[in-house]
Design goal:
By secondary structure, the protein is α/β, with parallel strands linked by helices. The protein has ten helices and 15 strands. Strand 1 and strand 2 form a beta hairpin.
Length: 321
């Protein structure tokens, strides 16, 4: 089978298609012929040597795929800890779920990492309740647009931020009540939320930014609210007003998905199948695809992610839709 080997040279990505044996699935795995794989910032961190796969997982890049099971031909999606950017992958059976029939199989690759990350961090970790106020940072990312939709489908009020003015429309199209510019100059997003919703009006914040947003996250948070940090795109070290944290009885939650055990992921995927997947058939949720590249142009896909030019998921299509 072919798989992608990606390295960085002088600030640009170089992607090479290499050959490897088709993986042999273990007893608790399913062999999937990949239709498409999703590009994630975790891939960029792995290329840079900062985010190795968990022990025992494939060294090949790629955390999500759509495709067909080799045993019965069923169209499926899968959440992975590695191995997705290839023509075949052996996926843990508990992390495989049906591809929504409302989507073409290539576009379905936009679901696993984005929507499961949003589900885990908004619902499981964030305790999202109907009617609550939610802030989603990096709202035009794959996870961000999934989180906006999921929160809206749960009856929440959503404010979403982006650093790029041209992406504000994507936030609104996904269902954000407030689409806010957060470039550090043109808009104080926290003040904008307070002007529209009042003070202390946010029950949950989904934050992949980190140091640059943490203080303002706490500022807008309601008593008993939660800030869920899932990445540190703008720095990993921040000052925090602990007195305000205590006054608001707030919870600061750190969360990752890739490092969780297969058993824990299987339990989360089971809940996801029941609680979220039907939303695609009902039309409440949709996969937002920014762009699709063939494997031969994969370097462009990774560069597009690095330069923050995407609004939604970037996919590598190993087969035609």
């Amino acid at each position: 089978m072919r798989y992608l080997d990606v390295v960085e040279r002088e600030g640009r990505y170089v992607a090479t298609l290499r050959e490897a044996p088709v993986p042999v699935p273990a007893a608790d795995e399913v062999l999937i012929r990949v239709a498409a794989s999703g590009v994630n910032r975790a891939d960029l961190s792995q290329i840079a040597g900062r985010y190795p796969p968990p022990p025992g997982e494939p060294e090949i890049l790629g955390l999500e795929v759509s495709g067909t099971r080799e045993d019965d031909g069923a169209p499926v999606c899968a959440l992975l800890a590695g191995g997705g950017h290839a023509e075949y992958v052996a996926a843990p059976a508990g992390q495989v779920f049906p591809a929504p029939p409302s989507l073409d199989l290539v576009s379905a690759a936009a679901i696993p990492e984005a929507f499961l990350t949003a589900f885990v961090n908004l619902i499981v970790e964030g305790g999202l309740e109907p009617g609550a106020g939610v802030v989603v940072h990096a709202g035009a990312s794959g996870v961000g647009l999934a989180a906006i939709q999921l929160a809206k489908a749960r009856g929440a009020r959503v404010a979403a931020t982006t650093r790029t003015r041209e992406k504000l429309a994507a936030l609104e199209a996904a269902g954000a009540e407030l689409a806010l510019l957060a470039d550090g100059q043109a808009c104080d997003w926290a003040a904008a939320i307070e002007a529209r919703w009042g003070r202390d009006a946010v029950a949950a914040v989904l934050d992949p930014i980190g140091a640059a947003t943490l203080a303002s996250d706490l500022r807008v948070l309601a008593p008993g609210g939660r800030i869920v940090v899932l990445a540190t795109m703008a720095g990993a070290r921040a000052e925090l007003d602990l007195a305000l944290l205590m006054k608001k009885r707030a919870r600061l939650v750190g969360s990752t998905l890739r490092a969780r055990s297969r058993a824990e992921k299987a339990a989360l995927v089971a809940r996801f199948r029941d609680e979220v997947l039907p939303g695609f058939a009902a039309g409440a949720l949709r996969a937002t695809v920014d762009s699709i590249f063939p494997p031969e142009r994969a370097a462009e896909a990774f560069q597009r992610m690095r330069e923050n030019r995407n609004a939604g998921k970037i996919l590598i299509a190993w087969r035609r839709a």
